[in-house]
Write a structure and sequence with these properties.
- With 110 residues, the protein is mainly α.
- The chain has one domain.
- Helices cover 79% and strands 0% of the residues.
- It has 4 helices and no strands.
């Protein structure tokens, strides 16, 4: 269960870091947006190493599902755009997929 916390926090910092570059390059904001963006992306990388997984590729695959959940939450909370019903269906499928990847590796390695 702790893996999901690490995934969520990592996704939050990855999205925030990328959003800083988005604001600078796509929205014409100050280049100073890069400073917190780089710090945020560094935290993202560090947090992702906290995940309990034997292989990085499997951790990154499961992380992808949680990243999608966090991205839709970001869309709603930060960008103030209401997610579509299809967004929530996709989110559900991604969480199921991430869980299968995480739990499947434990069952197979026993």
């Amino acid at each position: 269960m702790l893996n999901y916390v690490w995934f969520f926090l990592a996704a939050l910092f990855e999205i925030a870091g990328c959003y800083g570059f988005w604001m600078w390059l796509r929205q014409g904001k100050s280049a100073w947006w890069i400073v917190p963006a780089v710090l945020s992306l560094t935290l993202f990388a560090l947090l992702l190493t906290k995940v309990e997984a034997v292989y990085a590729g499997r951790a990154y695959a499961a992380y992808g599902g949680i990243y999608i959940v966090t991205s839709i939450a970001w869309l709603a909370a930060v960008e103030r755009v209401r997610p579509l019903a299809s967004d929530w269906v996709g989110v559900g499928l991604c969480v199921i997929g991430a869980t299968i990847i995480l739990l499947g590796s434990r069952v197979s390695s026993s």
